[in-house]
Structures are given as C-alpha cells and as structure tokens.
Specification:
mainly beta; Methylamine Dehydrogenase, Chain H; 5-stranded mixed sheet; about 40% strand; globular
C-alpha cells in the first residue's frame, strides 16, 4: 500500500509543474497536491523515525508497561500499570484522573509519546486494574487506527457519557474500550461475572471485531456475562476447575456472542493473535477440550487452537509438550505468514524434530514451530546446563524484517553468565549479570543463527525487556521494566527506539 501511494505521489510530482507563488492559498491550483504530499511525508513514521531512550515514572512505586505500539506517523502508544502518577505530582488524565491514593492504588494508564524524542503528548488513567505482574494487557488497533483497550478492572470503575454498560461491583470486570489516538474514549463497556479469574487475552480482526478470552473459576458455575447475548453452549467443568469464556464484541461495542472453551479440568487462556484471517489462541489445559483428546489427562499441557474469525468454530486444536510433563503456561504465540511459533518453558525434551537440544534437565525455553494447519516442523531449546532460565519472565519474540529470522530477546538469570545453548554462534561484548541475549532462529529449520549478548544497566538499576516491535525494516522499539538492583518490583517504564 505504501509503495502504491508513493508511486501516485511521484507521478503527480513528475507530471505537474507546481506553482510556488503563495503556496498557502487554498485557491492556488496546486495547493491540494502540495498539502497531500506534505501530509503524507509528515505522517510517514519510517521516514521520520528518530532514535531515543527515555524512562517514565517516579522510580518510587510500582510502575511498568505491558504493551506498546507504533502509530503510522511513528508516535508510540503505551499501556501499563502504576501506583503513582506518570507525570510526578500531576494526577490529571485526558478523559479521567488517577484514582485512589498516589503511592498505593494501582491504576491502568495510557500514554502517547512523541516519535521525535519520547516526550509525553498526553496521559490517561482508565481506573483501578488487577495485576499480578504476569498478566499483561495488550494493545490492538481497529482498521481506522483507533485503539482497542482491554484489562481486568477492579474497584468502582469510571462513569463517562460514552459508557455502554457500567461496572456492577468492586470485583473484577472485563473492560473493553475503543479509544481514539488523541486519547478520547469512543465507547467502553464493563462485562461482569463473579467468576472472573486472573487472565484475559484479546485481539481485533480485520472486520473490527473485538475477540476476548477470559478464564473463569467454577464457584458460580463459570458465570457468563449478562451484558452479552446468552452463552451458546454449556461448560464441561465443575465448581472446582477453570474454563475459558470466549466471545466477540463488535466495533460499535455491542456483543455478538459468547461461548465456552472447556474441558472437565482446568483450562487457561494465555495468548491470542489474529493473523492470516484466523484467530489463534494458546493456553494450557489438564483435560480434553470438547471434541478433542488430551494426551495425558490431569497434567497441564500447552495447546493451540485455530478459530474461524466470524463463527468461532475450531479449525484445529493441537496439544504441545512432553507426554508426562505439566506446564505452567504458554509464554508467547506468534504467527507469521507461513508459520506458528509457540514459546513454553520445560525441563523435558520431546519430539524427534529437535533442532537445538536441551543442555541438561534444567528449565529451558522451548520454541515449537508449526505450519498453518498445525503440523509440528521443528523444536528448539534455549537454556544452560548450570541453572534454570527465568521462570516467570516472558521474553518477546518477533519475526525480524531485516534478517528474515525469528528474534527472541531474554534476560539471562544472574545465576549464570550466558546460555550454554548456541555457544558456537555466540557474539557480542556483553558482560556481568543479567546479560541481554538476542537469539536469532532460522524459521526454515529451527537452528540458532546467532546469539548476541549485551550488558544490562549499571548498578543500582537493571532492566528486562517485555516487548519488542519493528515499525519497519531496521527500525525497532523496546519496552523495558526498570528495577532497583536486588528488587523484584519494577518502578519505572523504559522505552527505547533504535536504528539497527
């Protein structure tokens, strides 16, 4: 699309002799050509990309980002949690203010940052949110560029004129909202159930449908949302297990349907993405999800489900992992034009398609690549024979446009200096503890092309990268959690843009 528009503009430039006299006069016959060209160039994020690095938050209280995205003009939108106003001493937000007591009440925030230098253009607070440091609300965009916001809200909620359904009580509710990139709320709604657990994942498809997958406990029978059309099937679970409730809210904020994805045991949703016209969901289950057979019921196994974008019907379901192992979660799910990559952690190898072997029986990252119809293509492990990888971290993975490789960025635990995996292709000048490892993986066969190590921050701070995005070839952004050395609580959000 970019090349098509550029070709049109070049044609206009070559075929028209612009009249430069009084160029700001709307009556000038060349005014519209000049205006369109100027707008196009100024709003091209790749052309106007700048490299910078900034930190946000006071550094005194819990503050971290959970996701970010590049707008088409290169500005950055960030979502995250904070116990303290992002701008020190200023509790004001563009549509609503910081709720509760600064220094103790956890709020979800939105930021828009300037592409030029990272200056805050606006900040908004969406109310009190649930966080366990491992639940990470994600950002998505509708087809016109509007922002799709979702999180688990607690407390009294926020009441504004464009609210569709209010918050029922102080318990957890699902917040779904459509926000403009200037910070205004176009619509938002709360979905209520007394059975909402700790996990919510969402995505938006090309039809502007907002897909949600929320984990429900069974205390009240996995109670569905009264704000949406009646649930289309029945739960297979009992009062002692968890189920997944999935559904669609349309681009206008009103519901299409809700349905259970369940077994007779615990089911959790951890990752979801929209790609190639389908919705791909990943999670774990200890039972046979309706219409499938679990390899070893009673053990938590990672799964991937491919869903029809309009009906929610299942295209396929695959179970991942060793037959006798139990897995805590699915760390990441990334879908390219040709493949599905799932990241889990384990200390047991499986499959005859291993390309990078385990180093010992320590905990490893496991990268499992499937084709788009669910066939396993290869399996590669990243870890050390001296100790476990970081159990509760979620190292981001992208398909790197510059190299054509999968690229994963993780933080090496302080108990080891570097991974023993891929030692033959290790590069970089990194030293000290908590080194940053960028692992480049061949999509064709799963082998490690290289592992580049770089040093972490200098004391008294350290960082871990939670998100990595590529705006266009070689122009990337990183979102970090900043910690004081020795602490497990992040107190600042770090954003860096980089030319590579």
């Amino acid at each position: 699309m970019f090349r098509f528009l550029l070709a049109i503009f070049v044609f206009l430039l070559l075929s028209c002799k612009l009249n430069l006299n009084n160029p700001s006069d709307p009556k000038n016959e060349d005014f519209w050509v000049r205006t369109v060209l100027q707008s196009f160039l100024l709003n091209d994020g790749c052309r106007n990309f700048s490299a910078w690095e900034r930190r946000y938050g006071t550094g005194s209280y819990l503050t971290y980002g959970t996701d970010f995205l590049f707008l088409s003009n290169g500005d950055i939108i960030v979502v995250g949690f904070t116990e303290d106003p992002i701008i020190p001493g200023d509790t004001k937000g563009i549509t609503s203010d910081f709720q509760g007591t600064p220094g103790s009440t956890l709020n979800l925030f939105l930021l828009r940052l300037s592409r030029s230098n990272g200056d805050i253009m606006w900040v908004d607070y969406l109310g009190q949110g649930f966080s366990n440091l491992n639940f990470n609300p994600r950002l998505h965009q509708f087809t016109n560029g509007d922002l799709a916001i979702s999180f688990l809200a607690i407390g009294s909620g926020i009441s504004l004129p464009n609210m569709i359904s209010g918050k029922a009580d102080a318990n957890k509710s699902v917040y779904l909202g459509r926000h403009s990139t200037n910070g205004n709320r176009i619509w938002y709604t709360y979905l209520d159930s007394l059975d909402i657990d700790n996990y919510l994942v969402t995505t938006v498809d090309s039809f502007d449908q907002f897909h949600f997958f929320v984990t429900l406990v069974g205390t009240n029978g996995h109670a569905s949302f009264p704000e949406l059309p009646a649930v289309t099937n029945s739960s297979l679970g009992s009062t002692s297990d968890t189920d997944i409730l999935s559904g669609i809210v349309k681009g206008d904020g009103f519901g299409r349907y809700q349905t259970y994805i369940s077994s007779a045991n615990n089911d959790f949703a951890f990752n979801v993405t929209y790609a190639n016209g389908f919705v791909y969901l990943a999670g774990t289950t200890a039972g046979s999800i309706s219409g499938s057979t679990h390899p070893n019921p009673g053990t938590d196994r990672p799964f991937i489900i491919k869903l029809n974008v309009n009906t929610g019907n299942r295209e396929f379901l695959i179970y991942n992992g060793h037959s006798s192992a139990s897995y805590g979660d699915s760390r990441q799910l990334i879908v390219s034009q040709n493949a599905i990559l799932q990241l889990v952690t384990t200390n047991l190898s499986w499959s005859s398609l291993v390309r990078e072997p385990m180093q010992s029986d320590t905990e490893h990252y496991a990268f499992a690549q499937y084709d788009l119809i669910g066939n396993l293509q290869w399996l590669s492990f990243l870890g050390s024979d001296l100790g476990d990888i970081a159990i509760f971290e979620e190292p981001p993975t992208i398909f790197d446009l510059t190299t054509g490789l999968w690229r994963n960025r993780s933080r090496v635990p302080n108990t080891i200096s570097r991974y023993s995996s891929g030692s033959a292709v290790a590069t970089g000048e990194g030293s000290g503890t908590y080194q940053i490892a960028d692992v480049y993986i061949q999509p064709n066969n799963g082998t490690f092309e290289k592992i580049r190590y770089s040093s972490n921050l200098t004391s008294p701070t350290i960082k871990r990268t939670d998100q990595m995005k590529e705006l266009c070839t070689g122009k990337l952004g990183y979102m970090d959690r900043i910690y004081t050395t020795g602490s497990t609580t992040p107190t600042q959000l770090g954003i860096q843009t980089s030319l590579e």
